[in-house]
Every structure is written in C-alpha cells, then in structure tokens.
Amino acid sequence: MRILMSEALPYEGDIRVGSHELARQFLKHGHSVLWVGCTYHLIGLLLGLLGSSRHRHVADSWRSGPVECEPGLWVFYPISFLPYRNAPGFRNKTVLRHSLRLTVPRVSNVIESLGFASPDLLWLSQSPNSAALINMVHPHKVAYRISDRYHLFRGIPPTMVSAENELLRRADSIFVTARTVLDDLPETLLHRCQYLPNGVDIDHFRRPAASVHEPEEFRDVPHPRAIFIGTIGDWVDIDQIARLARSMKHVNFILIGPIKTEVGSLAPLGNVRILGPRRYSELPQYLHCSDVGIIPFLKSPRTDAVSSNKLFQYFAAGLPVVSTRLDEIEHLNSPARLADTDADFAYHLEQALLNGSDHEAYVSFAQANTWDTRFETVRQAIGI
Questions:
Q1: Which of 191, 230, 278, 303 has the fewest CB atoms within 10 Å around its CB?
Q2: Is 286 left (phi over 0), alpha (psi -120 to 50) or beta?
C-alpha cells in the first residue's frame, strides 16, 4: 500500500510524536510512505540562500527536494508563496485550502512523481497541510487522527477549527488519542471512531543495564534525579517545578526538551538542570540514569486530553512516575502516582524515591501499551 501522511512536524527532528511511530509501523508492515511535513515560507528560503544560519535548513530542504530518509519512506517539506500562518492575511480559509498549490517545487508534481497521487490511504493529522492535501489527491481511504483539543492551544486560528469539521466528515476512520476528546465528538461520528492512545517503542526504551552509560551532563548531578522529557511548553507548570525544587533541595530536577515557554524562574535554582533538546536515540540513557519520571502539567481541559508519550516511555525504562492528576492518565489506570497539589506531588515524589522499585509492574504496563499493539487497532479499523 501507498500511504500519504500529513504532519505539522519534520520527520527527522528532536520531537517524535505518534505520527512518527505510526509511519514506522506502516513501513514495518511493508507499506510505502510519503510524509508531507511542515511548510516553509519563501522568505525563509531566500534568507537561507543568503546565508542565514537560522534558515539554512529551509534552503537545504529546497535543494534536496523529497528525500528517501529510510527505505520506503519519503519526506518532503513544501516551500510556499502563501503559507498558512496565524497572522493577518495568512490565516483565512482560502490560504488554508490553497497554501500547497503555490509551492516550489509544486506539491502536486512531487506527489505524482513519487506515485502517491491516488494513495491507498491518506493519513491526516491536526496539521494545516491536511485541509489542503485532502483536496489535492484521490485517496481510496482517508484516516484522521485527533491527538489534542488543539482549538485550546494558543495561536490556533478559528479557520483551523472549522476546517476540522470537513476532515471529520470526509474521513473513513477517525482515531482519537484521549477519551475526553472522544466525548467531545458528535454522536453521529462515533461509529467511525477508534480510541487510539499513544504507545511506546519498548525495545528502544527498555535497555540492558550493561548498554547504559551515564550522560556526561549527569557526572556532577547526584542522585536522586527526577527527570522530565518532552517539549517544555506553556502547559508545563514551571512554577510548581520551582516550588518543588525549593522544598526538596535533595532532589535534582532535570528537564530535557525544546523550550517553548518562559523558564527564567528556574535559573537561580541549583538543583534544576535544563538541558534542552536531545536526540530520540539518546533519551533512554538519560532515563535509565534517573530515579523517577515526572509529568508536572498545569491541569486544564487542554492537558486533561493529552495522551502522554512520556508516561509510557518512563515506564518502559523502569522508572516510577509522578504526574499531575489528568483525566486521560487517570483513565489508563497506570501505576503512576497522581497528584492534585504541590504537597501531593512532593509526597508522591518522596514515596516513589523510597518505594518506587516495582520495576516489573512498570515494564509490564509499558508492554501492554506498545506501538505494535496500537497498530493492530489501526489495521483492523482501516482493513490493511
């Protein structure tokens, strides 16, 4: 089968979400994939060609065109004269629907040259590209994956929300990562919906102790270590981390991931280390050299609907987990310790550090929630 995937992220970046794992599952089962990722602006291309280091990747993408980065998996990042953005003149429905028609090279030509003009499956995510791609190709089947209440995220234009209604109407199968999001959908759509939370590549995160080497950045960071991995966005409770660090000076808090929000309040704290993003291949070694995984999110309707990859990754690495009490995490009935207040979080952290050695239970939970298991749901729903 030929599968055309629409995603807002690059395939090769530091952030890896469910779509990346599903693309690998399609490959694993013998299918070919074309990943149409984030759209760049023509101005970014010109700046890159003029030598801007910040935009060099745009120029590199234009020079290379579509690239087969793994056998059977092509990636392509369109460069548009009229990219859809949350800015005046760029966030209306016309731009959203036609941004992929005004590109260099032309998206339609790339798709046709690679043999994906009539894909067996068009796999759509909550990406601006999805609203454009669905009107540019002739798929045999359409699947739409809802991974967030994304209308609650800052900077999402209303036209994206209205465009989702068309995607829901035209999708043969709808995959929803959280029960709360499933509850949001009209009853008339439920017969086409499948609950499909995130999962874990357990072989990647469960490594033999002999293969783990302590990261260089950990050499001067004593145990116990509480680790967070993932994007550090405005949904992360930075103030809570600061309060915990002040009250638990014996614990070292380590944050790994791209920084998308203000973290200045953590800078003066000697027991907080912000390492920035690390490659996906490196994450297991950081987890295996830590003592507890944390998910300190601000509780809100947005975060209640998050299916957290890190929950499964922590458990696969054998770590106890302490998290804010979020609806989707609570629904999973995992071994995670759930906190409602700072005092709860501190108590559960202490308990996890003292009694968090139930390695078998953590790994067993991860084994029941692998991407291999998740993909069986996909296969049955779309008939591949």
A1: 191
A2: alpha
Alpha-carbon separation of residue 21 from 17, 124, 200, 239 (angstroms):
7, 14, 8, 32
Domain 2-199+371-382 has CATH 2.40.160.20: no
- CA dist 382 and 174 (Å) reads 10
Average pLDDT over residues 225-244: 97
For residue 365 the two structure tokens come to 């939970």
> Which pLDDT score, from 0 to 100, does residue 64 have?
86
Are 40 and 107 in contact, with CB atoms under 8 Å apart? no
Q: Which of 20, 358, 5, 14 is nearest to 198 (CA)?
A: 20
Backbone angles phi, psi at 300, to 5 degrees: -165, 170
The single residue listed with the structure tokens 């796999």 is 123
Cα distances from 152 to residues 31, 127, 196, 235, 319, in angstroms, run 34, 15, 21, 11, 31
| Mean pLDDT, residues 97-108 taken together | 89
Q: What was the pLDDT predicted at 329?
A: 97
CA 171, distance to chain mean position in Å, is 21
Long-range contacts of 151-156 (CB under 8 A, 24+ apart): 152/300, 152/301, 152/302, 153/302, 154/234, 155/86, 156/86
Geometric angle at alpha carbon 23, from 14 and 314, rounded to 5°: 50
- CATH for 202-367? 3.40.50.2000
Residue pLDDT, tens place only, 295-310 = 999 999 999 999 999 9
φ, ψ at 364 (rounded to 5°)? -60, -40
DSSP character at residue 264: G
Q: Which pLDDT does position 55 carry in this prediction?
A: 81
Q: What is the mean pLDDT of the chain?
A: 93
Determine phi and psi for 357, rounding to 5 degrees: -100, 20
pLDDT for 153:
82
Backbone angles phi, psi at 156, to 5 degrees: -90, 115
Residue ranges, CATH 3.40.50.2000, the chain: 2-199+371-382, 202-367
Distance CA 250, CA 272 (A): 11
CA–CA dist 50, 184 (Å, integer) = 47
The two tokens of residue 52 are: 């801007």
d(CA 146, CA 161): 12
